[in-house]
Amino acid sequence: MKGSREDLPVTLETKELKIQEAVWGDIHVSFETYQARFDVTPLLKGLPDSLDQCPHWGYVFKGEFRSRYKGGQEEVVKAGSAYYTRPGHTTIVEAGTELVEFSPKELFQKTMEVVGRNFEALQAKK
């Protein structure tokens, strides 16, 4: 299987971000583009420790993001870097960031059920 930003379907697009994603077997893949700084932390409420429990692997084409872990550890991933984000994190993505990310499908789906509900609730308040 293969895909590019030109052919993966857009599944979420707002003025702040654009997500294109697909499922390849047991792997979820997404191209993500952020036009504004995006802190995922409020969307994780309801998950254990209010942190993302799904691991992610990826590559940052442009920009950077920060992952924070329980206990205070923090990692900054910048353009040109491949990464692994272990379970138990939150993420803050800076404006202008473009990346591709791979995640285990089942863990990703469990996380996104909670994130989706929180995202809809926040959008309704705007």
Any overview of this molecule?
This protein is α+β, with helices and mostly antiparallel strands. 17% of the residues lie in helices and 45% in strands. The chain has one helix spanning 105-125; strands spanning 10-13, 17-24, 27-34, 38-39, 56-62, 64-69, 74-78, 82-85, 89-93, 97-104. It has a 6-stranded antiparallel sheet with strand order 1-2-3-10-5-8. A hairpin with a 4-residue loop joins strand 6 (64-69) and strand 7 (74-78). The chain starts with 9 loop residues before the first strand and ends with a helix.
CATH architecture: Sandwich
What structural class do you assign from the helix and strand content? alpha+beta
What value does the Rg take, in angstroms?
14 Å
- Biggest sheet strand order reads 1-2-3-10-5-8
* Helix content, binned percent: 10-25%
Mean pLDDT across every amino acid position? 94
CATH homologous superfamily (4th level) name: Jelly Rolls
Count of discrete structural domains? 1
Gross geometry: globular
CATH topology assignment = Jelly Rolls
Oligomer: single chain
* Helix count, DSSP H or I runs of 4 or more residues: 1
Number of strands: 10
Mind summarizing the main beta sheet?
Answer: 6 strands, antiparallel
End-to-end distance, in Å? 39 Å
The topology string of helices and strands comes to: EEEEEEEEEEH
Enumerate the spans where pLDDT stays under 50 for 5 or more consecutive residues.
none
Compact description:
The protein is α+β, with helices and mostly antiparallel strands.
